[in-house]
Specification:
By secondary structure, the protein is α+β, with helices and mostly antiparallel strands. The chain has two domains: about 10-285, CorA soluble domain-like (Beta Polymerase, domain 2); about 290-350, Magnesium transport protein CorA, transmembrane region (Methane Monooxygenase Hydroxylase, Chain G, domain 1, Up-down Bundle), CATH 1.20.58. It has seven helices and seven strands. The protein has a seven-stranded mixed beta sheet with strand order 2-1-3-7-6-5-4, with helices on both faces. Helix 5 (about 205-240) runs antiparallel to helix 6. The chain is rod-shaped, with a radius of gyration of 35 Å. The two termini are about 50 Å apart. The mean pLDDT is about 85.
Length: about 350
Amino acid sequence: MKKVSTRSGKAGLPPGTLIHVGDELSGTTSLRQFVLANDGYHEEHLSSLDGLRQSDPATTVSWLDIDGLNSERLLRSLGEQFGLHHLMLEDILNTDHRPKVEEYQDALFVVAKMISIDKETDGIDNEQICFILRKGMVISVQERPGDVLDPIRERIRNDLGRVRRAGADYLLYALLDVIVDQYFVVVESLGKRIEQLERKVLVTPGNEDLVTIQELRSNLIHVNRVVTPTRELAGRLNSLQSHLIEKPTRRYINDLQDHTVYIAETIATFREMLASLENTYHAGQNARMTQVMKLLTIISTIFIPLTFIAGVYGMNFDHMPELRWKYGYFTVMGVMTVLALLMLLWFRRKRWL
């Protein structure tokens, strides 16, 4: 999980310079095109933009799905073919952007974040994905292969929902919606871990629990850094007066905004639970320490008079009557035992034990 971003590589360069910013990428870039229409769809894997299928934006919707940011030449070609602004291309290569939406003359540019839980580290892994909405077309560009968009692809293939029959703006909403749905999966998973930890801390707390609390808090902060700007993104899309977003789609975008608000509130609740859980952990530790100190104090208090008696009879005086008495040792030990028992009974009566 990356916590500190580095943009120093772009220092001093002019705006629009195509330099990748973010984690080092590996693998290949793949292109896939979906052409949607009322009577069917066409799906094709492309080796280059030269094989891009031309479609009528009035009757069809085209989705160009690009996986991987390893080819700056491809991005330059994409910008030239569709007349994309150079700042838009620069932002695609900068994978450290917060979610946002920007309006251009003939396009909307949307930056979103896909998040998941890393199975090896239990941390939060995020991946940037950019969308370009044009008349009758959506272009998506993501950092690396593998995403959460397969449900949309399956809806297209099996003709489920409204994706085939709606416009490009609805397709953009559907893609954003499935990304936000993954936020629910991640937050619910963190919530289950918090509930399990809460039960453990209340029953059998351990030193490792404090580390787990800090890790969960860090994960929630990371998710919140994605969810908060995504909520702003949905609100801006809902209020944006753009001819590319039709009125019927705004109702769905408003629902998307409600989802992000709910997730943000859930994260806030979980953070409060972690704060309360940390206080409970420290309170339990202090209570156990108090019990230990009380036990040690009682033991010390009992041995104070016993040590006094032992000290008296440890003195090397010749004229001590009990030293030469036949039953002196047993009498002193008996007195010490009775004294210890009487003190224990008194502590019990005072409810110090």
